[in-house]
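[agent] plan:
  1. take the single chain provided in the ticket
  2. run structure prediction with default settings
  3. attach structure tokens to the ticket
  4. add a short note for the reviewer (M.T.)
[agent] executing step 1
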Amino acid sequence: MTTTTTTTRQAARTAKASVGTAKKIKNGPAIWGAYAFLTVAAILWLIPLLWAVYTSLRPKADTDRLGYFSVGGSYGFSNYVNAWTQGGFLTYFGNSVIITIATVALTLLFASMMAFAVSRYSWRFNVTLLIAFTAGNLLPPQVLATPIFELFKLIQLPYAISDSGSLLNQLVGVILANTGFQIGFCTFVLSNFMKAIPQELGEAARVDGAGVWTQYTRVIMPLTRPALAALGTLEVIFIYNDYFWPLILIQSGNRLPITTAINNLQGEFLSNYNLLSAGAVITVIPTLVIYLALQRQFVAGLTLGANKG
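[agent] step 2 finished; step 3 output follows
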């Protein structure tokens, strides 16, 4: 009885000491330092956005008279109205929607097929092909801009499909370029996710007579819905915010996405930065809405596949 009581007291002391150590660690200088660093970093990230919002609410006459780094004058939403009407943002936003939806759908479709092939089947070149897809992400788009531009210019299309007779100056050209550059990343992430699915599921499906397509559509794809949701959220934000490929591949102003069409608000000899700030804020709003609506999937996508395979 005495031995049992002594053991119980020692366990209680150990538990109390562990709790005290945990509290010290939780309230230690390292934690407070991390909080301070993250707070400063968040403020630094928010300053440009808040400054753009502040500038967009001021008329150009007030900033010219008082200076951009000043307080005072009148405030309103006239810059937003002018940016929307003068910039023709409704047309450009429609272009962004078409490019984003088509690119994300094609990217996830092709990446899931490739990931299924390299992760669920063992064949001679599966690892080599996965490395090749992943290595493509190491090349910056700027390196391949000239070859892709020349390639798209040489690909001839009927005028019934393309008024330029090629892939240049077409939304489909931007969709293909973005899809090609995003497939590698999505294939790598999805393949790691699919490797964690037990192989016994595929073996059971094959025993039941399921072919490759049936295994892909009815067994594997339903199990990868969380990964597809997270990747889809990330890809929507990536593609919507893309500025480079539309600038390179599209010359007609009415076919630009909204992120590139902000240049239309730029004057030839004089720039209205209040108007440009309003256009930039309008462009950011859909991204913020998507992030707030799909925040859980976005956060999951940041670490997706990190602990798989």
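[agent] step 4 note for reviewer: The CA atoms of residues 139 and 181 lie 9 Å apart.
[agent] ticket updated
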